Amino acid sequence: MNDNLSERSRQILEAVIDDYIRTAEPVGSRTVTRRHGLALSPATVRNVMSDLEEMGFLSSPHTSAGRVPTDKAFRFYVDSLLHVPAITENQQEEIRRQYQVPGRDVGEILKETSKILSSISNYIGIVVAPRFAANVFRQIEFVKLFGRRILVILVSESGIVQNRVIEAEEDLSTEDLVRMTNYLNELLHGLTIAEVKARIVREMQDEKVRYDKLLSRALKLSEVTLEESAADVFIEGQVNILEQPEFADVERMKEIFHTFEEKSQLINLLDCCMKADRVNIFIGAENFLSRMNQMSVITASYASGPNTLGVLGVIGPTRMGYDRVIPIVDYTARMLSELLGRE
Amino acid sequence: MNDNLSERSRQILEAVIDDYIRTAEPVGSRTVTRRHGLALSPATVRNVMSDLEEMGFLSSPHTSAGRVPTDKAFRFYVDSLLHVPAITENQQEEIRRQYQVPGRDVGEILKETSKILSSISNYIGIVVAPRFAANVFRQIEFVKLFGRRILVILVSESGIVQNRVIEAEEDLSTEDLVRMTNYLNELLHGLTIAEVKARIVREMQDEKVRYDKLLSRALKLSEVTLEESAADVFIEGQVNILEQPEFADVERMKEIFHTFEEKSQLINLLDCCMKADRVNIFIGAENFLSRMNQMSVITASYASGPNTLGVLGVIGPTRMGYDRVIPIVDYTARMLSELLGRE
DNA sequence: GGTTAGCACTCGATGCATTTGAGTGCTAAC
DNA sequence: GTTAGCACTCAAATGCATCGAGTGCTAACC
Lengths: 343, 343
Description:
- Two copies of one chain form a homodimer.
- Chain A is of the alpha+beta class.
- The first copy, chain A, has three domains: 7-81, Orthogonal Bundle (Arc Repressor Mutant, subunit A), CATH 1.10.10; 89-130 and 232-340, Beta-Lactamase (2-Layer Sandwich), CATH 3.30.450.40; 133-226, Enolase-like, domain 1 (2-Layer Sandwich).
- Helices cover 48% and strands 18% of the residues of chain A.
- In chain A, strand 5 (149-156) and strand 6 (161-167) form a beta hairpin.
- In chain A, helix 6 runs antiparallel to helix 14 (322-340).
- Chains A and B meet through strand 4, strand 5, strand 6, helix 11 and helix 12 of A and strand 4, strand 5, strand 6, helix 11 and helix 12 of B.
- Chain B binds a DNA duplex through residues 26, 28-31, 40-44, 46-47, 49-50, 60-67.
């Protein structure tokens, strides 16, 4: 396929995309000449648009309805035409201001983050909570509850807390628990969670430990707690999508909200971006969630020091204002990293 | 207002309500005679229905469209006509089965609960997380993070964990933290959180403590952590509402989803039920959330022993199957109490 | 007097033909 | 290569007649 576009073709394509982003309506040849001071007649533009359609950048819903940019066009736009500006002072200010609620736990910060993303972008904000595995172990605690129930609390360097209530097989005294705590904290100090897991397995085979019931029980309990639970995800601003004219149809709405109830799929999608460059963009059908074929996702990962913790992003219609949203996502990710990081 | 309904009026009202619950369409006089073996002609039924309209139990959308039960009718239905059956074996089984996912923290159990409520009722499930204040103090822990950040973890009897990251005013050594922990755990043992708060205030005025910087700092930290944060709420199954024909309209949908983004209002609403009888029902406009005027809420509170912890419920259209949903809500609340309780 | 059959009337929903207008594609002239 | 001109297309809007479920009223019936 020959995608070498002439300068003029690019201009016209950009004009169509710009217009479509603004109006969500198919764009006709006249509109292009009128709104973008091109010294060309509609007829000429039509010819060019016809070529662009041939090449797969445009498509027409029906014969007499103007043309709409395809996913391919948006991809080209994002890769080649788009000039992403730096984030404005105002937006920075706005984001900082919204973070200015003091004294909260990590979960609240993440929820707040997705609210910020949604309210500033006017689309949907999404934040996938840190994968515990990416973290550095800090401390483990056992708290005795009623009966044989034990609450195991696991804390990472960045202050992320994971806890589970576990039914122990036999009664454990408070002293037992203290001993277990000390043993484990010593053993696991400074390891990443991934290393912790390996270490536990190794330690369980150690002669000395195998004969100390308490220790091996401690290992078992911590192993259970470490089981990766389904990652939490915070989604805010779903109503914003209802304001988009292209979704003002009951059937499509159902589709979309179904997608958002199936959070695991979304998590999978975002997880792919954990290792990618700073900002990642999926356009329309590129993100293999068939139900999201009219939507784009802009993601960025956040980190604490060298450890990538998780991913956040904005979900909007394919025709979203990429130039406006990309800096927002990027900056918010950096802010969140700062908040969770070591400073 | 004279609401003494004759037996026949009641039968007809019930027939209209039943039919409306099934179809979501205005009910005409013929339908009433046809589907409910009443030995009456449509004309007679019309007369009665006219009376019922007069009394405010029915209303007609327009002249030739049959009649629709009003909120008042549903209130009467729930209070006087409805015979709530016991929960079926199958449903019990289903609920138990869905709870059968082991080893999770309280948050996950609550989320699961709202999923259960939604999937079994086919409406929206909602669970308000336990108000920490209603709980009995179990343990406090301080974990040193990077720099001056300290993670404070508060655990209640029922295994509910509340945590906050706090920026301390000066460096605290690990030993300091251990001393603080021991002091507080001793001081606060066995009190309810409400009592804990009072105790902290009192203790801060104690001569001995005022001169021990470490102790007073410990009290301050715990005080900050105890600040009631916005209650968490878990809402699941919002898509279910999209299936209801009476909401198959873009404008109304927007309304509804707006309501669900404003979680604080929902929490307020449910909080009112904390102290009420087992099952509580709000019909339509009765729940002062103007945006929810076409919806009903069925709630029940859950507890751990004598302490009411929180509220859960199902939100559906006013015409929901009350007889089906009430036992589900009731039973789920009991199950959850059991899970969180002391057994 | 309550009940019912009969009938005129109402009003949204449905279907169909017509019009409108934005937009295209093609051709011929510039 | 560009453009004016024109026939053509097609969704959307408009107008209009029809349909039918349902009502309210009246007069007859038991």
